Structure formats: C-alpha cells, structure tokens
C-alpha cells in the first residue's frame, strides 16, 4: 500500500479554498488523528459529505487542485473502514467516475496519474473491495484503462512501478479466487487486455529492475493456474510471450523471475 502521509499543512495550502470545505477538513483531521493516535481511537469522518464533494470536484477544480484531493483520498484509504465504505457504495458512484475522469484527461499531469494509481492500489486495504474491482464493470474498466495507459509511460519510472503494483493486486485477487473457488474473478477480456499490456511493458523495459519485477510478478499471477482452453493461451502464443520474457535475461541477468516465468509458466505450463 501507498501509506506515506504528505505534510498535511502543505497539502492544505495547495488545496486553496477547497481545504475549507467541511468534508475535506474532516478527512484531513481523520488522517492526522489516525497517524497520531492509531486507527482504533479515531472515528470515521462524514463520508457521505466527502463523497458528494468528490463527485462534484472534477467539474469544479483545476487538475493541480484535484491532485491534492486525490492524494488526501489515497492516504485515507489506507484505513480499511474508509475503503470498506466505498467498497459497499451503491454503483461505486464516487470512485468509478473519479478514475474515469482522470482517464479522460488528454494530458494528465504526472502527479495526478501517479496518485490515482496509488489510490487505486489502496482500495485493496479492504478485503471487501477486490471482488468489486474484479467483477463490477463500472469499476473494472476505468482501473484497467488507468493501468494500460500507465504501463508504457517511458518518462516516469514511478508511474510504471505503480501501474505494476495495481496490476499485481488485481492478478493476486483473481488468482486467489481461482485457487479457492475454482472460477475466474476477472473477466477473460480484461485479463487478456492486462496480459497484453504487461507483456508489451516487459518487452520495452530497459531501465528499471523494479518496474520489470513488478511487471513479471503481475504477469506471472495472471498466468498461474489459468484455464488452458481460453483465448489467453492463444494470445500468449501469438505474441511469443515466452521469447519476449526470456529475452530480458540479457539486460536484467539478476532477475530470477525471468527464468521462472519464461521456462515454467510459459514453457511447461502451456504444454
């Protein structure tokens, strides 16, 4: 999880007039009190009011202010009660449109894209959320879109790493459902879109061992115990997934996952 708390005084100053909204100041107080006193001693703020603010914010605030609001949301979501509230919100009417809005920004600022990815990662602080993220199209689609547009950000290593982390969270949640319930949690189309994007990211990564490891971990969990009779196998063969992964040995000789995924999951695992 991305739990680092920014200096709240500076964050408040950057928010400008938005910081004076009672719902925003309530969440700010919650974050500060939780850090000082521990989660057990702090009650949740007025999340109905904060949700209304979040739903209006994209149409009211410039993107540089939206960054501060989403960053506040990110750090508050570390609390499982806070994220649990949004996991159970009807139609995910606050979080889903917020992520969709960020996806629509033609030149989304680096800071906003990064904090949006980190915020989506922190949704997983509540065990209630993963099922919704995998199976509710209103939530799945903007999250997958956010990932796929971020994995290939060649200018910002941190964005690629955060996109890999979010992919990993989704892949692990789906893998758990495979193991425990013997079914797929994430629709096959979304799995294929993620796998293709991760494979492309693996193929072009030349600089960051951290990003490559993240891509490989997410990719590996997507493949582990996958159905052998689906379209995923065809995709992996058509994109020469095994060759793509094993080719990274030259640039990243110390990364053991290359061998594990290339030889085992994409070799013996596809036989």
From TrEMBL:
InterPro entries: ARM-like, ARM-type_fold, PUL_dom
Pfam families per the UniProt record, alphabetical: PUL
Gene3D superfamilies referenced in this protein's UniProt entry, alphabetically: Leucine-rich Repeat Variant
Domain PUL span(s) in chain numbering: 1-268
PROSITE patterns: PUL (PS51396)
Name listed for the protein in its UniProt record: PUL domain-containing protein
């Amino acid at each position: 999880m991305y739990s680092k708390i920014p200096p709240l005084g500076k964050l408040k100053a950057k928010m400008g007039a938005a910081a004076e909204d009672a719902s925003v100041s309530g969440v700010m107080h919650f974050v500060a009190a939780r850090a000082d006193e521990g989660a057990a001693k702090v009650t949740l703020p007025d999340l109905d009011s904060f949700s209304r603010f979040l739903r209006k914010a994209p149409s009211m605030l410039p993107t540089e202010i939206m960054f501060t609001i989403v960053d506040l949301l990110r750090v508050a979501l570390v609390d499982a009660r806070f994220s649990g509230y949004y996991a159970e919100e009807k139609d995910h009417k606050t979080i889903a449109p917020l992520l969709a809005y960020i996806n629509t920004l033609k030149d989304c600022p680096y800071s906003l894209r990064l904090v949006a990815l980190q915020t989506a990662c922190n949704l997983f602080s509540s065990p209630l959320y993963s099922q919704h993220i995998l199976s509710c199209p209103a939530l799945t689609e903007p999250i997958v879109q956010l990932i796929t547009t971020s994995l290939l950000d060649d200018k910002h290593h941190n964005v690629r790493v955060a996109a890999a982390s979010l992919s990993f969270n989704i892949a692990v949640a789906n893998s758990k459902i495979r193991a425990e319930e013997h079914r797929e949690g994430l629709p096959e189309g979304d799995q294929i879109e993620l796998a293709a994007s991760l494979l492309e990211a693996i193929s072009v990564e030349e600089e960051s061992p951290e990003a490559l490891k993240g891509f490989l971990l997410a990719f590996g969990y997507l493949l582990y115990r996958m159905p052998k009779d689906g379209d995923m196998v065809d995709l992996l063969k058509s994109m020469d997934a095994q060759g793509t992964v094993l080719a990274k040995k030259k640039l990243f000789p110390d990364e053991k996952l290359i061998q594990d995924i290339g030889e085992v999951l994409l070799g013996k695992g596809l036989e």
